[in-house]
Amino acid sequence: MKLWVNGGLKDVEEATVSVLDHGLTVGDGIFETLKTVQGRPFALTLHLERLTRGAAALGLPEPDADEIRRACAAVLDANPLDRGRLRITYTGGTASLGSERGASRPTLVVAAGEMPPRPPTTSVITVPWTRNERGALTGLKSTSYAENVLALARATERGAGEALFANTAGRLCEGTASNVFVVLDGELHTPPLAAGPLPGITRALLLAWTGARETDLPFDVLGRADEVFLTSSLRDVQGVTAVDGRPLRTAPGPVTAEALRIFEKNAAADRDPALS
Asked: According to the model, what pLDDT value does residue 249 have?
C-alpha cells in the first residue's frame, strides 16, 4: 500500500509523521472521507470545499486543492480498488506539546483502503452524551474524534451499527459519522445545521435532490417516526431497522427506498456533483 505524505507517495512502512504533530498531540486537524468506485472518488470537489471551510474555521492555512487532487489521483492509481475509502487528513503540523501552534507547515496525508459492501439497513442506539450546537468545533470534521469512538463502541457492544446524539437543547442532531433523516406523515425531514450536525455531503445532495425539509426536531421524534435513515459518504442512504431495540414498522420504508433510488441515479450520472 502507498500513501501520500507531505508532498509525495510513500510505502506504508515509510509513511510517517512526527510524534509532535499537533493532529496527534491535541487533535488539531480536519479530515475528509470519500467513497471511491472503480478508482474514482465521488464528490471530490464538494469535499475539498468543506475541507477548505474547515481549515479556515480552525485558523489553519488554506489547503492547496490542486495538490490534494494530485495526491488523491496518485494514491488511487497506486492502490487499485473496486470500491474504496479515501481519507484526506490535514493537521496543524509539528508544534510543542501544548495547545499553541508551531511555525511548521501543515501536515497532509492521503490514504486509501478497501471498503466492504454496505448493508442496506442497520440498527441504532441513542447515547446520553450531547453535541454542543454552539461549540468551536460544531460543524467541523475535526480529528478530535474520541467522543465518536466512544459512542460507536457503545453501539457495537449493543449490536447496533450507529449511535445518535441529541444536542444540548434536547433536539435531534446526528450520528457518530452520519446525518439522520426521519419520515413523518410521509414527509422527509433532517435537523438544520443550527442544531449542530456536520454539514454532510450526502445530506446536502439529498436535500437538493429530494426536496427534504430542514426541521428542528425533538430527540424523541425517533420514537414516533414512520421511517428513519442515515446518510454519509460511505453509507449513501441506509435504512434504520430499530432504535434502542425498538423495531420500526418498515425498514427500509417507501420514502427511504425512494431517497436511495434518487441518490443512486443522480450519483451515477455525475461523479463530481455541484450544489447550486
From this structure: 76
Dist CA 51 CA 72 (whole Å): 14
What pTM was computed for the model?
0.96
User: What pLDDT, on the 0 to 100 scale, is given for residue 69?
Assistant: 98
Q: Is beta strand 187-190 parallel, antiparallel or unpaired with respect to 213-214?
A: parallel
Q: Is the pLDDT of residue 250 over 80?
A: no
Specify whether the CB–CB gap between 28 and 101 falls below 8 A: yes
Angle (CA) 52 18 107, round 5°: 15
- Our measurement of the distance from residue 267's CA atom to the centroid of its chain's CA atoms, rounded to an integer in Å, reads 17
Q: Can you tell me the distance from the alpha carbon of 272 to that of 201, in angstroms, rounded to the nearest whole number?
A: 11
The residue to which cell 449542530 is assigned: 196
Task: Tell me the average pLDDT across 108-132.
Answer: 95
The strand pairing partners of 137, in sequence order, are none
Identify the pLDDT of residue 231.
98
Q: Which parts of the chain are beta strand (E)? A: 2-5, 8-11, 29-37, 40-41, 83-91, 107-114, 121-131, 162-167, 172-175, 179-184, 187-190, 213-214, 227-232, 236-243, 246-247
Contact 33, 85 (CB under 8 A): yes
**Of 121, 131, 251, which Cα lies nearest the Cα of 191?**
131
CB atoms within 10 A of CB 46: 21
Asked whether 273 and 46 are in contact (CB, 8 A), the reply is yes
Euclidean distance between CA atoms 112 and 36, whole angstroms: 9
Torsion angles phi and psi, residue 146, rounded to 5: -60, -35
